[in-house]
UniProtKB/TrEMBL annotation, chain A:
GO-annotated molecular function: ABC-type sulfate transporter activity; ATP binding; ATP hydrolysis activity
EC code(s) of this entry: 3.6.3.25
Pfam families, alphabetized: ABC_tran
BP GO annotations: quaternary ammonium group transport
NCBIfam families, sorted: 3a0106s01
InterPro entries: AAA+_ATPase, ABC_SmlMolc_Importer, ABC_transporter-like_ATP-bd, ABC_transporter-like_CS, Mo/tungstate-bd_C_term_dom, P-loop_NTPase, Sulph_transpt1
Gene Ontology CC terms, in alphabetical order: ATP-binding cassette (ABC) transporter complex
Keywords, alphabetical: ATP-binding, Hydrolase, Nucleotide-binding, Sulfate transport, Translocase, Transport
Domain ABC transporter: 3-237
Name of this protein: Sulfate/thiosulfate import ATP-binding protein cysA
TrEMBL record, chain B:
GO molecular function, one term: ABC-type sulfate transporter activity
UniProt function note: Part of the ABC transporter complex CysAWTP (TC 3.A.1.6.1) involved in sulfate/thiosulfate import. Probably responsible for the translocation of the substrate across the membrane.
Organism listed in the record: Asticcacaulis biprosthecium C19
Transmembrane segments: 12-38, 58-84, 96-123, 135-157, 197-223, 243-263
Protein name (record): Sulfate ABC transporter, permease protein CysW
Signal peptide as annotated in the record: none
Gene3D superfamilies: MetI-like (1.10.3720.10)
Amino acid sequence: MSLTVSNITKTFTKFAALSDVTFEAEPGEFLALLGPSGSGKTTLLRLLAGLDVPDSGAIAFDGDNFLALNARDRRIGMVFQSYALFRHMTVAENIAFGLTVRPAKDRPSKADIKAKVESLLKLIQLEDYGKRFPAQLSGGQRQRVALARALAISPRILLLDEPFGALDALVRKDLRRWLRRIHDETGVTTVFVTHDQEEALDLADRVVVLKEGRIEQIGKPLELYRDPATAFVFEFLGANNQASGTLRGGSVDFGGFSVPAIVKGGSEGAVTARFRPFDTQVSRSGPGFPVKVLSVLPAGANLRLELQGDGGEVYETQHAHDADTSELKAGDTVNLLPTKVYVFA
Amino acid sequence: MRSRPAEAPKTPAAIGLSLVAVFWLGLIILLPLVTVLFEASKAGVEPFLAAVAEPDTIAAIQLTLLVAAIAVPLNAIFGIAAAWCITRFEFKGKGLLLTIIDLPFTISPVIAGLVWMLLFGAQGWFGAWLRLNDIHIVFALPGLVLATVLVTLPFVARELIPLMNDQGTDEEVAARTLGARGWDIFFRITLPNIKWALLYGVLLCTARAMGEFGAVSVVSGHIRGQTNTLPLQIEILYNQYEAVAAFACASILAGLALITLLLKSVLEWRFAGELAANRRH
Ligand SMILES: Nc1ncnc2c1ncn2[C@@H]1O[C@H](COP(=O)(O)OP(=O)(O)OP(=O)(O)O)[C@@H](O)[C@H]1O
Ligand SMILES: [Mg+2]
């Protein structure tokens, strides 16, 4: 039961919110839509849910033409960024809504609905909260109720729009694990929107990276991280550094030393090389850019350095604690050597 | 959540302002109310009852209630529909629609009455046609209802629009993805969310409809026992120097208004918890 999105375009008064978007979600897959604010994530989700219509393109699920079905017939579970719980209903009534609103002939019996609600309350670990109103819950609890309400209709796909956007970091991490567990238990195909790269890489089976309404890259988290297709993906997925050099025969020459490059585009000659904080070495006498240590910060088992070059450019690097690095302190002068650089078109 | 005002006024300025407010309220609202009741009761219970039992007065009370019973539901339905359009859709001319809804607040009720005369009066645009078909609008119940509807049109819409704007469409959209149909969404999501504001608007609208004088006066024709509403009846009695009867009717009208207010307070008190939960969300 796979979801297929082909060549979707959506324009708001001349402004293209989505251009030629194509991707697929495998049955039971957990797919993240990742992109900065305004990249079209919510727009795409609304099209999938049937709350809006694309200008062109196709959306199919398991052979059904989704565009021919309206929102209520698609049987999609949607969790909104704002939760959108029904404020005048109790938690239990909220969860039961998708079942009680069915026409009499399709509606499960009262006892069945009650049993379903109870099992969902158990799933979201809020067994004793059924009689409360949404206003009497914390943000994280509301989020879980919103998820239970969406799951109650046994959705064919679950759509989540920045579900943890409004929560603090600790609760987010907790819910993230929990959401993944729920997904693994129910096995429902899930499309999850976020602008937090860490969240996307941590949770998803595959990630679709959006930029200004276009897909930049689709891939497994590690693939994206190790093998980014564009400078945008490289920069969006984590801390990074830049330096100018000359590309020649698969290496970048920085004048005096040269570093092997992963070349994703561009031609021989002057290029901007990018590298990750981990792909570096610092030494007192080896090759590299002469830099001054601005600060030394512990980062868990690692050490994070802030370095400044002669021209004022700032680099961020990370290293394991070892004999060389442990002695570093602010004000020292060292040489920074990238061990692996990326070159993009 | 709304911010709460501080507990009680403490500074001299705050106390002074409060006194001014209380004094003004007493002078402008309570004094006339007390006067009406006092004047009505001065002559004693018997003349009061006699005045109220007068067939013309009873007819006026019935007519007033009937007009309100027709006009208020019409405006409630219109108010919900208008608030729905304005808060749920983007369209050209929205600002204009909002202004038009406010118009009855700003124009004189006399004009609201004259408009109907101009349209349906004997010399009006449709006057000849109406006479030909023996349809009575002005100087009859339909005219009274039209005038009242026009004057009380904004009350419900004005209560609902800010609230529905605040609440947004999220819950309705969520209900749709959960499989709800249009009317299910309205009756199970929209209506419960606006019911208090709706009730409040309806009560205000009712009070205003029963008290309407200017517009109704123009279209009524003042046919005793037939097209005189309670406010018109009061004026007639007063002009005929039947002071006791006039004040007796006035106290009935004031009583109807007070009952409306009381109803509102009782409901607010009875459902205080639910109201607070609604606001807090
Ligand atoms: N109804 C609309 N009318 C006009 N423009 C719109 C509308 N909805 C969205 N847009 C525009 O389309 C673009 C994409 O919006 P969208 O809400 O999909 O972004 P997003 O990726 O969800 O961003 P965020 O992370 O901030 O939620 C934005 O530039 C937005 O201004
Ligand atoms: Mg969004």
